[in-house]
């Protein structure tokens, strides 16, 4: 009788053939396809972030440790650029002016934006028109804004001082030509320009406030101020946190408005860190020192943002 093939293979010492690989199930193929589709959508944005943000940030940290004037080879100097900051009076003035601008611009912008949002959230005739009017300054050219407001703030011929002179004996502010009033003038214009954008964010947040809570508080006898403090404001906490972070970062890195409105003057009354970075880098070509100042501004923004996140997390706990 003939021996079976399998038995013959065992007799001759041959091993069993390897089992075939498991077949890919439809569910596995679907997961793989979804993952590839997801990465396809993410990849362009990630590449843009890596090329336009991540690589420049790492380059910035490297340049801050070098002496480079763009025309030669970068010379490694270590922490010398940061040591120069300690004795640089202009840097100290710019740092103080940056905090001065942020300390006033942040709360004023938030209060004005929230007030406008509460007002325009009411059922008023023409509310949509006034929302558009309030938002329009945000999309207006910064150069046009600076030119118009410089005319309005003119000490001799500006309509603002002409109006104020009706209530004073001629002692009116010098605004952009005065060291004491230049920064308040910039803060006023910055608030006027930014309030429309943050007003829209608050308007969006107000749409999430449950009407049932407002009605229940009204039935309990709460007045408008009490309803705002105990109902509206707690419901606006996520929006308030987002607006606070955004306006804080924007205030710390303010640049274009001051550049075209006062150019840091008179003297150094409105010189801020962003403009000082511009002066050192693109006017004096000291890119290593300018990068060191930029690193300081970057770290300030990071620290302030982290503190805000921790504070908000503690409040939510």
UniProtKB/TrEMBL annotation:
Ranges that cross the membrane: 36-63, 99-120, 132-152, 181-206, 227-249, 287-311
Predominant place of localization: membrane
Protein name: Sugar ABC transporter permease
Family, per entry: Belongs to the binding-protein-dependent transport system permease family.
Localization terms from the record: Cell membrane
This protein's record includes keyword tRNA-binding: no
Keyword Iron: no
InterPro entries assigned to the protein according to its UniProt record, in alphabetical order: ABC_transporter_permease, MetI-like, MetI-like_sf
Annotated membrane topology: Multi-pass membrane protein
CDD domains linked: TM_PBP2
Highest taxon listed in the record's lineage: Bacteria
Lineage summary: Bacteria, Bacillati, Actinomycetota, Actinomycetes, Micrococcales
Keyword vocabulary terms for this entry: Cell membrane, Membrane, Transmembrane, Transmembrane helix, Transport
Chain segments carrying region Disordered: 1-23
ABC transmembrane type-1 domain: residues covered: 95-308
